[in-house]
Amino acid sequence: MTNQNEVKSFVEHHYDISVMTVTQLTDKIWKLVCLDRVYLLKLTMVDESFVMKQLYAYKELREHVLPIFKTRLGESMVSHEGQVAYLTEYVEQIPMPLEKRVHDYAKMLEKLHAATALHVEKHDEEIRQMYESDYEQLKRNFMLLEQHMEQIEMKITRSPFEWYAMMIYPLLYGMYRRADDMMQKFYKRLERKKIFPVAMTHQDINIANTLSATDTSYLINFEKSNFDLPTTDTVLFLRHYHQVPGVSHMITNYLKNQGEDLVAYHFFLKTLCVDLESLFKTLNGNSLTDISLLNEKIAPSLLAMEIFDNLYQPQKPPKKKAKPAEEKKDDD
């Protein structure tokens, strides 16, 4: 489809609706003003299974997912020149502060997880394979940390980055110790219960994949969606938006609302296992840049430890000091 008349003819033929105006928004998205409503026609080369994912999400969470309209033949999509075309609703976006959009995104993800929650039985062999995968990842990153520190300690002169890495080594070591503790708790509970909580996860965490309208907000782009532990989204959410004010409170409330320690243990396992392997591949030898990269990599983990302490080690309110005897007498 290369022009407005072609788009108009395509839609009227396949959907039996009368199109008044066509506006091209991108090379693969058109806005269609019709008599009854305003639509979007989207053209994509992605595997058509993602349309099925959006339809499922819409079935379970209509208030935050856009519909996909059926053709006159009852189909959800139309093949067109090696691509897939589908018709959905057009939403007029309104300006909204970043913090509000991020907050709405978190609430929509929580509602999606709750609406699609399932409990899957896991056999011992599956649990063993999962454990070995997580254990190897944690072990590999810990060994990389130890090797890197040994190399730095052998040097006579060190760069500012290397001095900084030595300074925060106890912090990184502590993260891995906590990650190991969470891993043991997660798998011990999973082995005992044999039940794995899963839900439909978005997995393409970016506020660009939300739409903010006057009355509500919507999740869009379900290409990467899958059924997994719901905290798969929460981990990605923290990594992307840990600098946004209030994110710590959002995630704390989310974990509390799950009502299942298994989910929280998985979240802390994944956030505290800092991926040093990918970090070391991106270091370029510029000390200031490398320090910035390291800080950006561990910042979500630092916030996760704060969330952990708030959930499992809440600070007790300070005790009121007893009044001196003379003050008590005056009060009387």
How would you describe this structure to a colleague?
The chain folds into two domains: 18-89, Phosphorylase Kinase, domain 1, CATH 3.30.200; 98-312, Aminoglycoside 3'-phosphotransferase, Chain: A, domain 2 (Alpha-Beta Complex), CATH 3.90.1200.10. Helix 3 packs parallel to helix 7 (247-258), helix 6 packs across helix 8 and helix 7 (247-258) crosses helix 10 (287-312). The strands form three sheets. Strands 1, 2, 3, 4, 5 and 6 form a six-stranded antiparallel beta sheet that branches. A three-stranded antiparallel beta sheet has the order 7-8-11. A hairpin with a 4-residue loop joins strand 9 (210-212) and strand 10. The radius of gyration is 26 Å and the shape is elongated. The protein has helices spanning 4-15, 49-60, 98-115, 124-153, 160-193, 231-241, 247-258, 261-272, 276-282, 287-312, 325-331, and strands spanning 19-26, 29-34, 38-44, 68-69, 78-80, 83-89, 118-121, 195-201, 210-212, 217-219, 226-228. By secondary structure, the protein is of the alpha+beta class.
Supply the number of structural domains: 2
Helical percent range? Answer: 40-55%
Task: Describe the sheet with the most strands.
Answer: 6 strands, antiparallel
**How would you describe the shape?**
elongated
Question: Secondary-structure blueprint of this entry?
Answer:
Blueprint lengths: L3 H12 L3 E8 L2 E6 L3 E7 L4 H12 L7 E2 L8 E3 L2 E7 L8 H18 L2 E4 L2 H30 L6 H34 L1 E7 L8 E3 L4 E3 L6 E3 L2 H11 L5 H12 L2 H12 L3 H7 L4 H26 L12 H7 L1
Antiparallel strand pairs: 1-2, 2-3, 3-6, 4-6, 5-6, 7-8, 8-11, 9-10
Helix pairs in contact: 3-7, 4-5, 5-8, 5-10, 6-8, 7-10
